[in-house]
Amino acid sequence: MKKNFKPSEIDEEHEDLLALSLSTPHSQYMHSNSSQPPPLLASTPPPQRLPLFSAVPQPPPPFDFHLYHLPHSPPAFHHDLPGPSRPTRTRRSPARTLSQGKTETIPAPYPWATTKRATVHNLHYLQSNHVNTITGLVQCKKCDQSFEISYNFPKKFLEVAKFVSEHKSAMHDRAPEFWMDPTLPDCNHCHQSKCMKPVISKKRSINWLFLLLGQMLGCCKLSELKYFCKHTKNHRTGAKDRVLYLTYLGICKQVDPSGPFDA
To answer: What is the dihedral of CA 131, 135, 136, 139, to 10 degrees?
Structure first.
């Protein structure tokens, strides 16, 4: 059965509810028998307003190819465009310690290599001394025959330098897949394809510039890549794609110190 209320009863009920909702801790304290003071109300700071849009850092300036007498070409695809850069982190150069009996300088293993371990001559030196051809030894994985192949230095270095300049921001400090798994040359003896692997013996005699031009640095072991980073005062921890990326940029930096090859 529905209960009917008089208007006066409804008004009195509303007044009681309003008085209850407006009651404060202070008033409750005044009506209580406690002798402790009322707790202080924590003041809530006003919420901070976040900006609607974050500032997007500008991409690095294009690589100056004036030394190579060829103009710079823009990226061919939209996914090659550089994205927002990550915050710059300061890396600590690892301390170089040589084993007993070893020295920092060695006899230059190649005309394009210096007497310093894991270091090649720069572009000015190579051009001044007319070093336009870089050779290296490769061996077939099928027939075991060894051959010496050569690369045109200005042409091949330009290919690597342009790729790094255009795609460095999109690599995120990691070597791309085709650097990790290089495409090997074909064998002229047994006519098998993609089977000529570079010959790597001692670390001190690795043909770094030859491997760079052929984009075969991925054939090196992780320990060999760490050897390069160790003697070039570079960060050498992490997975192979990380150390391989630093090796590519490190050799490019040695050849062209003014290029966009800072790791």
So the answer is: 170
Asked if residue 231 lies in contact with residue 246, where contact means CB atoms within 8 angstroms, the answer is: no
**Predicted structure pTM score:** 0.65
Of the pLDDT bands very low, low, confident and very high (cuts 50, 70, 90), residue 257 is: very high
Q: Count the neighbouring beta carbons within 10 Å of the beta carbon of residue 165.
A: 22
**Token output for 151:** 């690369």
Domain ranges of the chain: 107-164+175-255
Decide if 165 contacts 72 (C-beta within 8 A). yes
- The 3 state secondary structure assigned to the chain is CCCCCCHHHHHHHHHHHHHHHCCCHHHHHHHCCCCCCCCCCCCCCCCCCCCCCCCCCCCCCCCCCHHHCCCCCCCCCHHHCCCCCCCCCCCCCCCCCCCCCCCCECCCCCCCECCECCCECCHHHHHHCCCCEEEEEEEECCCCCEEEEEEEHHHHHHHHHHHHHHHHHHHCCCCCHHHHCCCCCCCCCCCCCCCEEECCCCHHHCCHHHHHHCCCHHHCCHHHHHHHHHHCCCCCCCCHHHHHHHHHHHHHHHHCCCCCCCC
pLDDT tens per residue across span 105-121 = 999 999 999 999 999 99
Q: How far apart are CA 178 and CA 175, in angstroms?
A: 8
218, 181 contact by CB (below 8 A): yes
Burial class for 221, CB neighbours closer than 10 Å (0-12, 13-18, 19+): exposed
Whether 117 and 176 have beta carbons less than 8 Å apart is answered as: no
The residue length of the chain stands at: 263
Confidence check: pLDDT of 164 > 70? yes
